[in-house]
Design goal:
By secondary structure, this protein is mainly α. The chain contains five helices and no strands. α2 packs parallel to α4, α3 runs parallel beside α5 and α4 runs antiparallel to α5.
Length: 96
């Protein structure tokens, strides 16, 4: 499925499926981790957390932030690590 259909405006507008986006992101994170489009997924994840935090269940966000921390430890790609750290430290405090 085309990501532009799944993530309108690169994750900035999730109004039409706000109840399902959090669990979808959480459950699909491990699958995207090994995908060549993982960086794009991380950018969308950042936008969803940045622009739509009210629509996300805190437990899901905490799980995603845990995944991001793990990704920082195992990733060999600087751009992936940078965006993971950006999400982890900029938005992680909101969900403690």
């Amino acid at each position: 499925m085309d990501r532009s259909v799944i993530f309108p405006e690169q994750g900035k507008d999730i109004l039409h499926f706000e109840e399902r986006i959090g669990p979808y992101l959480y459950n699909s994170f491990p699958k995207w981790l090994k995908h060549e489009g993982f960086y794009k997924f991380l950018q969308i994840l950042l936008n969803v957390i940045k622009f739509n935090p009210a629509y996300l269940d805190p437990d899901v966000v905490c799980g995603l932030i845990g995944y991001l921390g793990h990704t920082c430890m195992v990733s060999r790609t600087k751009q992936n690590i940078d965006i993971c750290l950006q999400v982890r430290f900029k938005y992680g405090e909101m969900y403690k």
